[in-house]
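Translate structure to sequence.
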């Protein structure tokens, strides 16, 4: 199997080449630093050692995106498998493990299974958005003798059962830590807007690439659908990610676009779907993709639209969880960012952003 570097800047390639094949490694970096593409590249490079590799993530939609990246890199022998952590744990356990109230499994039962010498399989794992997996996960893979590389950003936590970077490193045991720098996704204008919601110490440096400033729209009834149709018709080769606060908003927008502009063929993803419909996306196709906020992590779109910021009007604008959510959503955009609200007043969180970083109208 040959390996091809995919969309890597020189500093990213150097960082990847510097990672030893053996041992455990934790690589952290801000949005746009290329963690996901590096995770896919790392998995393929490790497979060159002749050991099957599993590339893991929390989100099923991010799994689909990573599977596409791995496929583009060329391994056709299934030496790299891309899975959600839930599915991999169930496969390793041999059946569906006992559940717990937090949506994960009974870690005690998994630890008991891992304590069996026959279970110490020593898998080779790469984890993307590793902060979204619980601390117990890293204790488990340590018990299994796994060779693990984790890509993570503590300022983009998605779940209530997340891990800090220190917890990941501590629970893996002996672990080297590396930091990624740079923002290869956003424009300076988008990154400057996102910096208003950064929750860590010291905002990341702004990128040099230029683009239009983010824009806040006050929507009338069906106004969000109007904007999406306009963007899709004027940017037919661009990907347009719609990040909604509720499943109701997702399907409302889908229905409006399908009724008024069926030729656009919008896609929708929801983790609540029980069948194949709304569970599998073609992320390589341009056009409108409607996702929930919970599923946006790790994705990137040419244009991002957050249509329903009024849903956050009653939330404390100093809330770390709310700020982190907007930080994640804003940094999904490569070229354009649009936010919208309904009602008379701007949501308090956005009203604090000056017009230099967020245009109105």
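Result:
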């Amino acid at each position: 199997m040959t390996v091809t570097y995919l969309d890597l800047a020189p500093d990213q390639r150097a960082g990847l080449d510097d990672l030893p094949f053996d041992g455990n490694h934790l690589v952290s970096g801000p949005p746009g630093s290329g963690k996901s593409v590096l995770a896919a590249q790392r998995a393929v490079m490790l497979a060159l050692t002749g050991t099957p590799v599993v590339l893991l993530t929390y989100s099923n939609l991010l799994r689909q995106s990573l599977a596409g990246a791995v496929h583009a890199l060329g391994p056709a022998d299934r030496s790299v498998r891309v899975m959600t952590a839930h599915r991999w744990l169930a496969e390793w356990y041999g059946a569906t493990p006992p559940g717990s109230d937090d949506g994960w499994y009974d870690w005690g039962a998994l630890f008991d299974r891992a304590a069996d010498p026959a279970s110490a399989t020593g898998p080779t794992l790469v984890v993307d958005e590793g902060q979204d997996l619980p601390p117990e996960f890293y204790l488990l893979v340590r018990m299994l003798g796994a060779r693990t590389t984790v890509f993570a950003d503590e300022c983009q936590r998605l779940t209530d059962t997340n891990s800090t970077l220190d917890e990941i490193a501590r629970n893996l045991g002996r672990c080297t830590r590396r930091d990624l720098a740079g923002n290869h996704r956003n424009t300076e204008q988008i990154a400057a807007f996102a910096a208003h919601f950064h929750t860590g110490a010291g905002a990341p440096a702004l990128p040099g690439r230029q683009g239009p400033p983010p824009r806040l729209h006050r929507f009338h009834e069906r106004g969000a659908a109007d904007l999406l149709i306009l963007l899709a018709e004027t940017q037919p080769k661009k990907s347009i990610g719609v990040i909604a606060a509720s499943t109701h908003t997702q399907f409302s927008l889908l229905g409006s676009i399908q009724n008024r502009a069926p030729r656009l063929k919008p896609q929708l993803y929801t983790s609540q779907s029980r069948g194949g419909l709304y569970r599998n996306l073609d992320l390589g196709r341009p056009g409108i993709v409607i996702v929930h906020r919970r599923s946006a992590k790790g994705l990137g779109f040419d244009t991002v639209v957050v249509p329903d910021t009024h849903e956050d009007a009653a939330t404390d604008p100093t809330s770390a969880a709310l700020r982190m959510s907007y930080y994640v959503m804003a940094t999904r955009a490569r070229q354009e960012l649009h936010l919208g609200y309904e009602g008379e007043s701007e949501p308090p969180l956005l009203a604090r952003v000056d017009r230099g970083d967020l245009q109105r109208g």
